[in-house]
């Protein structure tokens, strides 16, 4: 499906998410971030992020901390 988004036509991909996976999506008024784990557009797992949560890489977190003037020590981050 192609839709007009502003002044640009974009192709839309629909992804089906089971209601039981992320119950918050049942509320049509849901606003927020969700994280989906997918394999070839099949949703395998996922969850809604809380207002104070975000997703980043350890490298990006370290760089942002340095730019903000914070010092992270290896003991502050537990890598798996």
The amount of helix comes to: 10-25%
Overall form: extended
Helix run count: 1
Radius of gyration (Å): 18 Å
The order of strands across the largest sheet is 1-2
- Which series of helices and strands comes N to C? EEEEH
- How would you characterize the largest beta sheet? 2 strands, antiparallel
The number of distinct β-strands equals 4
Cα-to-Cα separation, first versus last residue:
41 Å
Structural class: alpha+beta
Number of domains: 1
Q: Any overview of this molecule?
A:
The chain is α+β, with helices and mostly antiparallel strands. The chain contains one helix and four strands, in the order ββββα. It has one helix at 58-67, and strands spanning 2-5, 8-11, 34-39, 42-48. The strands form two sheets. A two-stranded antiparallel ribbon has the order 1-2. Strand 3 (34-39) and strand 4 form a beta hairpin. The longest helix has 10 residues, at 58-67. It starts with a strand and ends in a 13-residue tail after the last helix.
Secondary-structure map with pairings?
Blueprint: E1 2-5, E2 8-11, E3 34-39, E4 42-48, H1 58-67
Antiparallel strand pairs: 1-2, 3-4
Question: Which key phrases capture this entry?
Answer:
80 residues; alpha+beta; two-stranded antiparallel sheet; two-stranded antiparallel ribbon; 1 helix; 12% helix; extended
Q: How would you sum up this structure in a few lines?
A:
The chain is of the alpha+beta class.
